[in-house]
Hints:
The protein is mainly β. About 10% of the residues lie in helices and about 45% in strands. The protein has two domains: about 1-90, CATH 2.40.240.10; about 95-175, CATH 2.170.120.20. It is built from two helices and 13 strands. The protein has a six-stranded mixed barrel with strand order 1-3-2-6-5-4. It has a four-stranded mixed sheet with strand order 10-7-9-12, with no helix packed on it. β4 (about 55-60) and β5 form a beta hairpin. The chain is globular and about 55 Å long. The N and C termini lie far apart (about 50 Å). Keywords: Ribonucleoprotein, Ribosomal protein, RNA-binding, rRNA-binding. GO terms for molecular function: 5S rRNA binding; structural constituent of ribosome.
Amino acid sequence: MLEGIARDSMTKQETKSLRRDGYLIANIYGKGLENINAAFKMNEFIRALKAKETLAFDVSVSGTTFKVVVQEYQKCPITSDLLHVDLMVAQPGVKTTYKVPVKSVGTPIGLKNKGLFVFHKKRVPVKTTIENLPENFTLNVDALDTGHNILVRDLELPEGVECFLDPRVPIVGVIKAK
């Protein structure tokens, strides 16, 4: 379980001081809950994210344990270091918007025809409860040729999961190289 500290002060000086000490600034929120301003050791947070097996994982702040999902994160445009992360509390039975990662399997035919494989959407927003939340959407891209896409309408959504993107939005595809 990932251990964090609660931040008392929200000043710019305090935030800079925490970042200098190797902390990642976080905001934990949920429906009907009061926002919690926290900080986690950067290396421990990254290690916990890589080791997690589900989208939701446990964090502990000031002795209170929460099951959270990463909603948003901010990176430094120059160094690509994580600066801030928003964690949403995954409450059982509450329908919320989650961003589910997309994984591809196979090698598209279009790569042999001088095409480039492109991820248009790395994460697909869906509305569901935490119990019905899929871990990822795995797409077989073997049949994709140059100019072909897999669209939102081609996703197989589990029961109780709804995607509110336009069905014509591409997720992955093979484009023609110039």
